[in-house]
């Protein structure tokens, strides 16, 4: 474990840090450099003024060319230098602000990941996203400006004030008298800005939450067709946000307007007072003009100060609202101070432990039990009995509210996260699978324990054998093999192509007879019922995009070919039948992807075809227009008779298509010999999976038993070719999709179990870890647990299926948050209590 | 289409239409409207089983119901460590309707004793249809009630005939 990084910042949690602390925190050097450069710049700005004077007074007056050259040179140099320094100031300022924003984001994120689970029950992910991404930008900007802007502008203001005082003290005092008025009015206006800004932060959060909610619930939204409900909710929040933002902006502009107004009043007072003095002869005209032009120079620094003030106000509101939101006490520190994480003696002792919710509901009450190292205990009971709560308390994910629970004599709630994760592995009921490959997920817990450095570049790099072993233990092996076989080969893996072609030959030699009921082999003299009509005609994989299935109806060559092969009209008829039937079945129901799995019409196309069917209802084929014809042709070409059972394909058409296949091949050879790679038994088909390449055909059946048999043949073949491990390696690179969406519920659970097995912790907590698995998979995992882990790892399993419970050393039956019975299987059966009843009920 | 998957020889009829005709004959679904039947026929799948294959296994919740289109099957119960052959069924038999309605572990195994073709409907597909037509539940509940009553009458009849006391335990199921 990487201790160094994690012990930093243990002292003040980020949520307690004042915004101003970021100004110098870690930026001390940069800020000092900045101050020096600013002072330098201000000083350098004086140089041109001085040079101006000298050029006029000395060079021009005394007619000295060399002095003119020198002073002009210095003038130019100072202007260039001042601009260069201004650039440096901006660079440093940007660096400071970006660094601060990045640090705030990182530290807040680290803090959030460690927050207690109870917090996340009431917090939408969108709120967190919004806080981390949007709300910390302005505070960051403030940090960047915090030294540079006030310093530059205040020094400039003071300098000009001094200059004006020298010119004329009375006028100077008059022109500065407007500033106290502004200092009184502007903060009052700012209060309104702040009020609306707070509202804005709140509704931005709501908006982000809403977006995240509907995207994560998109299944439900689409399945229920609840677009209107969701749209309304979203629109309401957006409208509210719009109103708030308008008000917020108006007040912000009001401040600018007020400030500009008063500044513009400046010359007005000067005219009145200065004019009076001039008329009275107390002030020279030249002095008045000089004063007016000097006074104008006050505008810019003042404007910048006002802008800074606004950034400061907005920044602090965003900052403190964000930090306060996440200011929840962290229950357990990440890593221990001054010691390595414990290697605990894994006996577990629980005494009078209770868990109460904030509302006072007792989820666990006075639970006591002890588990010896290596012992396996099952927690059973009805749902709501507290069995999961008990397991999660032991895993430190819930904090028990009274009593004691210890591992190796150490109180669980006082241990750090590092102590727990070093000694414990947890598989939850609906485990989370991260976007990435199977392998990355499989190694997740292991990598967290040993550190990425050690796993990817060091001595902890796991051996393939061990990965394969846990895949077998968890039962995921077959799935991974399947993923490997379903891979479409590309890049690196192309080196396997010759082996795959060789396996194809052997597969047909050995198994063709046994599997012919379930597989349709590619045969150029046969119509393929489990391939689309387009595939049947082309009988190869397209090399050029124009011959890809979806582009065929736009391909003039292909359309002409269909005409010549007499295929256009029968295909239109077929397309019409498909459209008619599908629309008649699905027209009055809410649409769900499942209804479209067996139809060549896609969900998003349904309305289009519904219209089409209506429009051509009483028309003959020669009466339909070109676009309608194309749509029907598209359906017919997509149609795969074995898969889409909505229409039947007449025999004459299959013969016609076979004829067409030969004709197409001839024509394309003349026209464009490289457009299509034809299926040949000695050629790899790049558009198809490894599995289909080995079969040189497609599996027709969805019957699990038949698929199992084909898989067995395939495994036998892979073993024979010594390619099984390679295939697993390919399969482990399968990308599981966000939240493991491409995996089934069972596969996700098996992956989660495998990831804990791979970590092999001394304590394992399984919270209904096998609930989504079929009986056989569950039994296999249970037997691995009993055979391999008993005596080695302590196991606490929340069990809902009772057929495996016999395997446990001890069973605790929970009822209403209490342990009602505890003992071995035989003891409890003999006792004829709750457990006995539960077992009998389930028989 | 492959010969063994074909159950009627009218080549021009689509599988969907054939399925629809089958569904209209299944007693369990009598009373269900034609729209619903169409969806069933559209969503169900045909499966081929080789002689000796398990169609479903005891203690497994496969979540499917099966209609035998052709072939022959055997119902088997594993109990007390022994395998009991309950009875054989031919074409037009229907199994597992309850699995469509609720998660349920099959209490028997069904094994193909000839090459067999089944029309298989999954709980997932069924519930998608129910989402669209919630009224189905009532029809299905009626069918289940009818079946329970038939079973009960059979038991009572058996009891009347044999008057064996141990049969008493089996009575009363229709009063659930």
Could you explain how this protein is built, in words?
The complex is a heterodimer of chains A (843) and B (176). Chain A has 843 residues and is α/β, with parallel strands linked by helices. Chain A has three domains: 3-325, ABC transporter type 1, transmembrane domain (ABC transporter transmembrane region fold), CATH 1.20.1560; 348-429 and 786-841, P-loop containing nucleotide triphosphate hydrolases (Rossmann fold, 3-Layer(aba) Sandwich), CATH 3.40.50.300; 523-678, no CATH class. Chain A is built from 35 helices and 14 strands. Chain B folds into two domains: 3-134, Sandwich (Jelly Rolls), CATH 2.60.120; 135-176. Chain B is globular. In chain B, a hairpin with a 2-residue loop joins strand 4 (73-79) and strand 5 (82-89). Chain B has five helices and eight strands; from the N terminus they run H-H-E-E-E-E-E-E-H-E-E-H-H. In chain B, helix 1 crosses helix 2. In chain B, the strands form two sheets. In chain B, strands 1-8-3-6 form a four-stranded antiparallel beta sheet. Chain B has a four-stranded antiparallel beta sheet with strand order 2-7-4-5, with no helix packed on it. Chain B has 176 residues and is an alpha+beta fold. At the A-B interface, helix 24 of A face helix 1, helix 2, strand 1 and helix 4 of B.
Summarize this structure as a short list of keywords or feature phrases.
heterodimer; A: 843 residues; alpha/beta; ABC transporter transmembrane region fold; Rossmann fold; six-stranded mixed sheet; four-stranded antiparallel sheet; extended; B: 176 residues; alpha+beta; Jelly Rolls; 2 domains; 5 helices; globular
Shape of chain A: extended
Determine the CATH topology of the largest domain in chain A: ABC transporter transmembrane region fold
CATH architecture of the largest domain in chain B: Sandwich
Strand order of the largest sheet of chain B: 1-8-3-6
CATH topology-level name of the largest domain in chain B:
Jelly Rolls
CATH superfamily of the largest domain in chain A: ABC transporter type 1, transmembrane domain
Oligomeric state, counting identical vs distinct chains = heterodimer
> What helical percentage do the residues of chain B reach?
25-40%
Give the helix proportion of chain A (percent range): 55-70%
Please tell me the total number of domains of chain B. 2
Q: Class by helix and strand content of chain B? A: alpha+beta
Mean pLDDT of chain A: 86
